[in-house]
Write a structure and sequence with these properties.
Layout lengths: L46 H12 L7 H8 L1 H28 L6 H44 L5 H16 L4 H28 L24 H14 L3 H9 L7 H27 L13 H35 L10 H24 L3 H15 L3 H11 L9 H39 L14
Helix pairs in contact: 1-6, 1-8, 1-9, 2-3, 2-7, 2-9, 3-8, 3-9, 3-13, 4-5, 4-10, 4-11, 4-12, 4-13, 5-10, 5-11, 6-9, 6-10, 7-12, 7-14, 10-11, 12-14, 13-14
Length: about 475
Amino acid sequence: MPEKKDGGNLDTVPSQVGQVLEDQYYENDAVFGEITGEGPNYRSLGWVGTAALMMKSQIGLGVLSIPGALDTLGIVPGVIILITVAIITTWSDYMVGVFKLRHREVYSIGDVGGMLFGRPGKIFFGVAFVLYWIFCAGSGMLSISISLNAVSSHGACTAIFVAIAAIIGFVLGSIQTLGRMSWLAWGGLFCILTAILIVTIGVAVQSRPSAAPQGGVWVSDYQIAATPNFTDAITAVSTIVFAYAGTPSFFSIVSEMRDPRLYTRSLLFCQSVVTGVYVFIGCMVYYYCGSYVSSPALGSAGPMMKKISYGFALPGLIVSTMLLIHLPSKYIFLRLLKGSRHLTANTVTHWMTWISCTFMIAMASYIIASAIPVFSGLVSLVGALLGTLMSFQPMGFMWLYDNWTQEKAERSLKWKLMVCWSVFVIVSGTFLMIAGTYGSIVSIIDSYGKSGGSAAWSCADNSNS
């Protein structure tokens, strides 16, 4: 058995790519308690699987909104903003791993809120965490329904497709550990990247996008730099921020790693791939489509390519929804059974509690997605408000929490620069949160004024936008 560390935690045995560590148990994990052979091993996730889960929590249909953001901002300002957001969120994500190693008892952003701001902070960030992923899971269900509509040429009522998505998400989301989900994450990631690549190739080889005028000579009207008004600009920036807003899930992911010390390796691999995909896909699709890019962009290359790309994307969208249901369910599950033997043992109480949590989250996501007429706008609002709040400000406070109390003699230039950087992350995150929320509210009011929103449990085809 590994040696005990301070606080009752057990040290981990470093793992290598492809290596399976047999009979490795963590007798007193700071989050999950005693882990034995009587139940699931919550500490079974390797660094490669960690990278896959990280990338899958970031890359989804959100990447296909980036060409639309570049249309609003222009290619050069859009790419600069995207890379800036990537740098800030990469540091935020890095702080998740550092904070976890220093405070092994942390499982979620709610725990961080409790350490920073006491019980009110723990409740606030815990509720924000669950609410954020519920709305994201609802968005995932609608994305699956869009895919099914596109592939089947609206072969059934959309409300039926959303219900099917909810059932599939519930079943797969009930897989107990992230370690068992990692191979699904790789498959889902491959499928969504293949779909994106198909669209990119499709718009590159076609003479014009499907939404462009079909008569006469057509030349892409892409812009190097655009001049949007404030509302449109901040909405586009929020779209880019939302594409990196998987940060709150990283606490849960690192908590199930066999060796959390390898977290940074997984993170750098994840962020490099994600940023490369975002820049390449965003620029290529926007360059060839210009202002006629569809949102999501899978419909930009015409009806046939739309069917093919959505067909490939479907497994990736299912995996995303599975993960979005699993994360808040696991958070509630841990809160209910923490300190109990039922947490890590395959008892009736364990399974009833776990299935109840995943069913409750899946049902809440389904009802919200199906019943709210302005759901897509509301997801943008929740992303701007809660996604930004949980991806920027807490990480700045986390560094200050661990480093502010240094003696004056130890406050070097590096320390002062890090204080300035942490304050910058907090201030910039607060600005983006407030401005993005304002932009989302204005967009909801405008879209509702034009269309009145969608009907609850609508049968209408939602794949033609």
